[in-house]
Every structure is written in C-alpha cells, then in structure tokens.
Amino acid sequence: MPTDFTPIASFAGGVLIGLSAVLLMALQGRIAGVSGIAAGLLPPWSGPASWRIAFLAGLVGAAAVAGWVLRIEITQTVTTDGSTLVFGGLLVGVGTVLGSGCTSGHGVCGLARFSVRSLAAVATFMATAGLTVFAVRHLAG
Amino acid sequence: MKEIATALVSGLLFGAGLLLSGMADPAKVLNFLDIAGTWDPSLAFVMGGAVLTTAIGYRFALRPPRPLLADRFDLPRTTGIDGRLIGGAALFGVGWGLVGYCPGPAFVGLGLGSASAAIFVLALLAGLGLGRVLSAGNALGPEAAVPQDG
C-alpha cells in the first residue's frame, strides 16, 4: 500500500527529534537512544530509573495528547499478525542490546557524533531491514 | 526532579517529532525499506533533519566541561566494530523490517492506543531483557550488557 511522500513534515519532525537529543545531552549528558533507555529499566540495574520512565512517558504522552486531547488524526497501519509482532519485537529487543542501539541511538545520536560504530550499525540494520521487506513483499508474497 | 522534568520534555519532543514526521506509522517506515516496491523516501528526510540538528546542537552541548544538570557526559566508551555490534544490528534490522516498528515509534503507538503496538512493546521488553541476560552470560560482564551507544 503506497504512502504519501512528505519531505517537509518529515524533515521538520526530524528537527524536533534532534532538538530532543540535544536537550537531553546539554542538560543531562545522555544519549537519546530509545532502546538503551528502555533496556536500563530491566535487570541488571545500574543507576536511577526515574528519568528513563519519564522519557518513555513523554513518548507515550506526546501521542496521547496529539490523539486524544488535540484530536489530531494520526494514521498508523499495522498489517502484521500477532505472532509476527511478537517475533519482531523479540528480535528488535535482543538485537538492539547486542548491537548497542537502534534507529535513535545509532541512527541519530551516533551519526551526529560521527561514530564509525554507529555508521556500521546503521548500514547493517538498514540492509537487513530492506532485505527482510524485500523477502516478505516480493519473494514470499 | 529537574532530571525527571528534562527527560519528560525530551520524550515529549521526541514523540512529537515522530508523529509530525509520519514515522509513527509502520506502513510509512516499511515503504521506505521497500525500494523495489511502493518506495516512500520520507524516512531519509527525518534522519537528515534529526542528524543535522543533533550534529550542530551537540557542538554546543558538549562544549562545557559537564552537562548543566549532571556531573558528567555519559558517552559511549566502546570503540571498534565487532561481531556483536554487526550481529545485533542485523537482528534488529530483521525485526524492524518484519513489523515496521523500531522502539521509539512503538512507544508512540502505545500512546495512540494501538493493540499491535502494545503486543510489540511487551515482546520488545522481553527481548531487551533476554539480550541483557545473554550479554551478561557471555563473560562480557554487566557493563557490556548496557547498550552504550544508544
């Protein structure tokens, strides 16, 4: 199913994501990596968890405010069945711990720091994600 | 208290960015990954805007000896590319390509009341926990179990 190409809104949204990352670094000295922030809530624990919960609550809260308070219509199409959702979620979880980050930690913060590790990680997950979509949509379909 | 407020505002901004950019919709993400099909290059513009803003902002944010509200900058110390990094990133990519959710948009989906996002987030948390157990049991020590780059 095609989706609209939205270069301006997408770039502007990216700028907001960047501002969020800069804010967290300038004030708290932390990388805005969602997988790392969430993983820190699970054992083995080290350091305080309250800021992690607050950041994730912000992610959830932004959507809740946009959808239920501001009544903005937000398109989200998930065609994946339940077992694939579970399998995909597990892979994303294990993969981001072993690979030390996801689209935000490596893809935004890491690339912005010119980290070679992050560049390698981004190239790898983009490649396997693209191959997976190709296999699901064009080979298996 | 300031730490919690900062993290909350940062999370809200991040979530607003994901919503505005269209990345809260897995269909849009999957179409970015589907170059051979219904390709939608929007995600490249999201990353462009985010990386550009962060790269410029970090130049100023990292200039003082320490952050405004903390004792030190908590930056990744690991260097070098190893099998763990590449293998982990490869697994993450497969999961991302299967569903179209990476961790940020999944939490945003939770706030939109999506049952699919809720199932994905539960599995994601289980996967994160499993990854930490695997890392800890890998003689890498608990330090290595913490995703340090992000």
Order of helices and strands of chain B: HHHHHH
Q: What is the assembly state of the chains in this entry?
A: heterodimer
- How many whole angstroms does the radius of gyration of chain A measure? 17 Å
Question: Helix segment count of chain A?
Answer: 6
Describe the structure.
The complex is a heterodimer of chains A (141) and B (150). Chain A is built from 6 helices and no strands. Chain A is mainly alpha-helical and 141 residues long. Chain A has one domain (7-140). The mean pLDDT of chain A is 95. Chain B has 150 residues and is mostly helical. Chain B folds into 2 domains: 1-75, no CATH class; 78-150, no CATH class. In chain B, 70% of the residues lie in helices and 0% in strands. Chain B contains 6 helices and no strands. Chain B has helices at residues 2-21, 26-33, 42-61, 83-99, 103-111, 115-145. In chain B, helix 5 (103-111) packs across helix 6. The radius of gyration of chain B is 17 Å and the shape is globular. Chain B starts with a helix and ends in a 5-residue tail after the last helix.
Task: Describe the secondary structure blueprint for this structure.
The complex is a heterodimer of chains A (141) and B (150).
Chain A: H1 7-28, H2 34-39, H3 50-69, H4 82-98, H5 105-112, H6 116-140
Helix pairs in contact in A: 5-6
Chain B: H1 2-21, H2 26-33, H3 42-61, H4 83-99, H5 103-111, H6 115-145
Helix pairs in contact in B: 5-6
